[in-house]
Amino acid sequence: MRGPGRRRGPGRRPGAPDTRGEILGAARAEFAAKGFDATSVRAIAARAGVDPALVHHYFGTKEKVFVAAMELTIDPAELAETVAAGPVDELAERFVRMFLSVWGNPVTRAPFLALLRSAIGHETAALLLRQFITSIVLARVRPLLDGPDVDLRLELMASHLVGTALLRYVIKAEPLASASEDELVALVAPTLQRYVTPGG
Amino acid sequence: MRGPGRRRGPGRRPGAPDTRGEILGAARAEFAAKGFDATSVRAIAARAGVDPALVHHYFGTKEKVFVAAMELTIDPAELAETVAAGPVDELAERFVRMFLSVWGNPVTRAPFLALLRSAIGHETAALLLRQFITSIVLARVRPLLDGPDVDLRLELMASHLVGTALLRYVIKAEPLASASEDELVALVAPTLQRYVTPGG
């Protein structure tokens, strides 16, 4: 094992190497180069010049490294678990409310917007966002759905939500931008519930 | 009236001033600075140093100038008219098919993608895209809808379609990216029809 802090930046105090920062820098580079699925904690550790155990010590799972590296400020895996918990016939409503609350707050919106912006025009950023949506978010909800085309239906739900976030918070189309959360839930949740329970 | 071709670029042949090109450059600058609604043919002409009649001569309406300036290769106003024509209970299906055919072709997709990309992070580009969506596209379909929240319902339709385009053609989430147009129409059109005819 190479010691942490082997590459010291200017102004860094000896004896207080920014190991955590080095791991995050390595993680950003690995995720950007390979996407989420093909990146391993081992590869992140190797790039940072530390033992994989140290990555686990600082962050826990690979998903947590991702959340920290992308500065997501919230953990989408935990949010997806919350959406998945509860009655399946109200799943769409929970999904819409969670999504609007994350995008409605500029602090939690910013990193997702950055991911989305990079993904338009950069293949590897698109790969990263794709795997983030499917492996971290939709994978949690997937076991609750029955019937044909489950993955397609989930991605169409995600499509509607991503598009709504774009038109409401970025493009600011009116009256969508000024509509209350409850107005939107009343219109969008029953629409999306068709994808959750097509026969329901 | 100042003469066309008053600002000559390098390599331009005398006697063949690129008046059309100057008008388009002026139009891009005006649209980018003020958005679609606040830009007038008169202001574009003034910036290009030509008579407004010449702008009409080359392009027709302000919308046609916009289509040419943004290199849209297709006229969204005409497509929106096509979507609006026909039975209202099949409006969503026509909208989905039109949208997929425009985004499915890299040549017609590219300028919309460029608009979308600029809109993420640039206020004036967002303004331009917002007015494009509401004033050029949705305004054509609007008279066909009844009931409450017509504009909100139209923008939610647009949200779903923009999000689907993003996940299918840009982020390339599977199986959405490989699904056939007919599969998508079968799932998305009835979902969106809820926004067209909520009681239907």
Mean pLDDT of chain A: 88
* Main sheet record of chain A: none
Q: Largest chain interface and its two residue counts?
A: A-B, 42 and 42 residues
Q: Briefly, what CATH class of the largest domain in chain A? A: Mainly Alpha
Whole-number tally of structural domains of chain A:
2
From the structure provided, what is the oligomeric state, counting identical versus distinct chains? Answer: homodimer
Briefly note the CATH topology name of the largest domain in chain A: Tetracycline Repressor, domain 2
Strand tally of chain A, please?
0
Over all CA atoms, what is the radius of gyration of chain A?
19 Å
* CATH homology superfamily name of the largest domain in chain A: Tetracycline Repressor, domain 2
What features would you describe in this structure?
The structure is a homodimer of 200-residue chains. The first copy, chain A, has 10 helices and no strands. Mean pLDDT of chain A is 88; it is low at 1-6 and 11-16. In chain A, helix 1 packs across helix 2 (41-48) and helix 6 (91-104) packs across helix 10. Chain A has 2 domains: 19-69, Homeodomain-like (Arc Repressor Mutant, subunit A, Orthogonal Bundle); 76-196, Tetracycline Repressor, domain 2 (Orthogonal Bundle). Chain A is 66% helix and 0% strand. In chain A, 39% of the residues are buried. The first copy, chain A, is mainly α and 200 residues long. The A-B interface holds A 113, 116-117, 119-121, 126, 129-130, 133-134, 149, 151-153, 155-156, 158-164, 166-168, 170-176, 179, 183, 187-188, 190-191, 194-195 and B 113, 116-117, 119-121, 126, 129-130, 133-134, 149, 151-153, 155-156, 158-164, 166-168, 170-176, 179, 183, 187-188, 190-191, 194-195.
